[in-house]
Amino acid sequence: MAKAKSVVREVSPLPRSSAHHIPDATVARLPIYHRVLTSILEAGVVSVSSQELAELCGVNSAKLRKDLSHLGSYGTRGVGYRVEYLHFQIAREIGFAQDWPVVIVGVGNLGNALAGYAGAAGRGFRVVGLIDSDTERIGEEIAGVKVRPLADLESVVAEHGATIGVIATPASAAQAVCDRLLMCGVTSILNFAPSVLTVPEGVDVRKVDLGTELQILAFHQQQRQDKPREKTSRRKPQRLENIS
Amino acid sequence: MAKAKSVVREVSPLPRSSAHHIPDATVARLPIYHRVLTSILEAGVVSVSSQELAELCGVNSAKLRKDLSHLGSYGTRGVGYRVEYLHFQIAREIGFAQDWPVVIVGVGNLGNALAGYAGAAGRGFRVVGLIDSDTERIGEEIAGVKVRPLADLESVVAEHGATIGVIATPASAAQAVCDRLLMCGVTSILNFAPSVLTVPEGVDVRKVDLGTELQILAFHQQQRQDKPREKTSRRKPQRLENIS
DNA sequence: ATGACTTTGTGCAAAAGTGCACAAGCCGAT
DNA sequence: ATCGGCTTGTGCACTTTTGCACAAAGTCAT
């Protein structure tokens, strides 16, 4: 690497954030790599090969290496990757150190689950606000954070400078909540409501839809039942493996 | 259509399931189309153009048309799509009619939320089992279904012939639960636990990971903050719009 | 030092997905 | 009947993602 390159490319071996541009598909996998590395780090593993790590993460080893190569050259040929070092580098890349302030709107079952998850220490997030319109729930404390009324949305966001908002409301309220979040400075939204959000350019929206996921499974299930005789199941070869 | 084609292609205008092979990316969007169609159908809309429907679904109109073309030729040139007819065709394609029996393992907040969602009538699913290891919760009734102990897993699955299982347990229990589900005939799994599952070929696993989603947002957020001066945000142009 | 062995990093080609642009086809007015 | 105006369905080119296969580069034993 860093040989004669046809295209001018900044080769930055120093610990600065790798400017390059990391493909979306890779970004989506980094958190998994990070989690698995956390596991094996705690288990005392010092070094790991791309092959081993790939199996633990349920991906192809070539893909893993290419993903990691986008962050920099953090491996050693003939040896593998230092678990601790790689763990740290990925953490830095995905902003794990920063404890991002997050506001969650809608404290139903889903909001609750999320508050519990993001509220746990050492995950890189800090729940700074829980908002709900149900007056019954206001004041209730979840994961150490008090539930506050919808009217407080703006002040809560402003107070902690939250830039990530989670919408766990019914679909009917989602767009209105979204608009209010954007208005007070939130630029990243995680939407659990089964509705399509309209946002201005520059805002990052991710959608998690339980119903959609189930229906995708149902579709494949139906395909399998419609024509069970096939060369073999041409389903995507699932090669996955977990940690504990 | 159905003119002289260079390639032999079965033109099946009859209501048989379109055998073709529907791309994964398309399958993932069909449930959204279906939901939006449900909305506008209830609103009394009779006909819709690909342009209108695409905006409501937050996608490109060409993409929408290509997606629909994989199901068959259900539109009318110069006019658009009959909402009711298209709605029905998509429903049939994704197996909406069938009320798939679903077993949910783990009745924490997440399991609860899912039970509520999938348990609602008219979504194409029927929660036939709620399983939890916590003896405190056993017997509790959620969305009309009683929570049963982990030991009953096999009998519950067998009793209703469930082929779709949802894992909403802690990560430490996920693989064991997964193995047991597969053992008794489940072939599709929706995994909410933050762990990578190992499954034999032919089993369909989908993963929903709250932590991963948040971290992807955090990554983009960090990118934006690291270098705020750029030609313009080269973020994916979000053109989304919701219904109500 | 040298050589055998191992594992990374990457060039390359295939596959999948996206979106433009336009011919094909349908409707309604004249 | 013919024409003009729409909208679908799709050919095509471009982008993104995937994974093979191998040179580059390191370790370890001798």
From TrEMBL, chains A, B:
The keyword NAD applies. Residues 221-244 are annotated as: Disordered. Gene3D superfamilies: NAD(P)-binding Rossmann-like Domain, Winged helix-like DNA-binding domain superfamily/Winged helix DNA-binding domain. Residues 95-196 form the CoA-binding domain. Keywords: Cytoplasm, DNA-binding, NAD, Repressor, Transcription, Transcription regulation. InterPro entries: CoA-bd, NAD(P)-bd_dom_sf, Rex_actinobacterial-type, Rex_DNA-bd_C_dom, Tscrpt_rep_Rex, WH-like_DNA-bd_sf, WH_DNA-bd_sf. SMART domains: CoA_binding (SM00881). The keyword DNA-binding applies. It holds the Pfam family Put_DNA-bind_N. This is Unannotated protein. GO terms for biological process: negative regulation of DNA-templated transcription; response to redox state. It comes from freshwater metagenome. The lineage of its organism: unclassified sequences, metagenomes, ecological metagenomes. GO terms for molecular function: DNA binding.
